[in-house]
Amino acid sequence: MAHAHKLEIFRGLIKFKSNTQKIWGVLIFLTIVTAIEVILGIYKPEVLMGKVLGMKGLNWIFIILTIVKAYYITWDFMHMRDETKALQRMVVWTAVFLILYLIFILLEEGGYVFDVYKDGYVKRDF
Amino acid sequence: MSTTVVNTGTEGKTWGGGNKPLNASYGKMMMWFFIVSDALTFSGFLAAYGFSRFKFIDSWPIADEVFTHVPFFHGNYPMIYVAFMTFILIMSSVTMVLAVDAGHHLNKAKVTLYMFLTIIGGLIFVGSQAWEWATFIKGDFGAIQTKGGNILQFVDTEGQRVALGDFVVAEHKDRTAHERKNGLWFVSEGTLPTYTVEEVIHGLETHENVLVRTQLLDEHGHKTVLSREESLKQVKENGKLVVEGANLHVNEYGSPLFADFFFFITGFHGFHVFSGVIINIIIFFNVILGTYEKRKSYEMVEKVGLYWHFVDLVWVFVFTFFYLV
């Protein structure tokens, strides 16, 4: 049982007095992020609909905010912050590299199949 | 016997044994590795969802239009209920981590309370998901499926969705659903739609203000609405099946794949939540019985906590990729 918790988040910007306080602090942060996502999802501001690197700007914001949320859930709720560097890397990099490859290969092929339907001789709209 | 080797002379050195490079117990480490492998399973599902979405990138359903219901309230509230479910799950994650924290202080009463709240949160989430499934399966507006498997929905001249029941009149039918007990034995079919395609065509002809909306997205991301002549032509020439609600074969909201992935991904996640609740209940009773009190270690609570947080973590991603993006 690791009693020593690291109590600062945002790279030391906020330091909590106790572990319980940190939990509530992280909850407030996660709630704010979720609220931002939902509000953007409902109103879909026109400014953010432009394409950035082949995807809508809004979608990039959603994905980045999701990864931010995932980081705080893993690091503070699952206490990854208190584990050794080796365990952190073992868990995170394994997942990150395999998932990135999976995403790349499937989205690339999905786009290819779309092109076949669109430009090829396969008729779908009837 | 002074020559007997009793030690290797490497005690305290890196390879001397007894080292714990990860400084984590066996159980906790294995839970982490299980979580990694489960995360890969879920990312496989979500990436497959992405594949299908990119395959039909110009005709995929708009999630905002699909998930618009809130229990006990009428009207159009996109996202609100899913946001509520997300919040419930994050909240139960918080009570779980509070239970783990209380466990570190060997405070049995607090662990019991927080475990109990976590279980309640999990049950609310599973219940909400069941409700969401029921609403999705029931459907709300109804649509026509074409020969090519595309979905034609109906809107009025202002672009508001029109339900089939608002302009189609069901006539008396002799055709009944084929059950296993009669007709061809041990062969059955699903529930028959309320209307036939002919009735829908008739309703469309008599209602001047109803138009057909296709699956295709225009450059602004809105679904294409056909003109009155094209609407009639499209339904008459290609209309094949009346679709109400969604199942694994047909889906009134758009591509059937959308419903398939909805059932599969949220179902698999819901199953994780369900099993998480069961494990939490087992641990909850162990806490009450004082098993961990005697052990002087609440690490078991920490381990199920990891699993429970993982379930929350997955939901964060499902929420983004199913409902937001």
Walkthrough of the structure:
Chain B: Belongs to the cytochrome c oxidase subunit 3 family. Chain B: Its main location: membrane. Chain B: Keywords: Cell membrane, Membrane, Transmembrane, Transmembrane helix. The complex is a heterodimer of chains A (126) and B (325). Chain A is built from three helices and four strands. Chain A is mostly helical. Chain A folds into two domains: 1-83; 84-126. In chain A, strand 3 and strand 4 form a beta hairpin. The mean pLDDT of chain A is 87. Helices cover 55% and strands 7% of the residues of chain B. In chain B, strands 4-3-2-1-5 form a five-stranded antiparallel β-sheet. Chain B folds into two domains: 48-138 and 258-324, Cytochrome c oxidase, subunit III, four-helix bundle (Four Helix Bundle (Hemerythrin (Met), subunit A)), CATH 1.20.120; 141-170 and 192-244, no CATH class. The interface between A and B is large, with 55 and 66 residues.
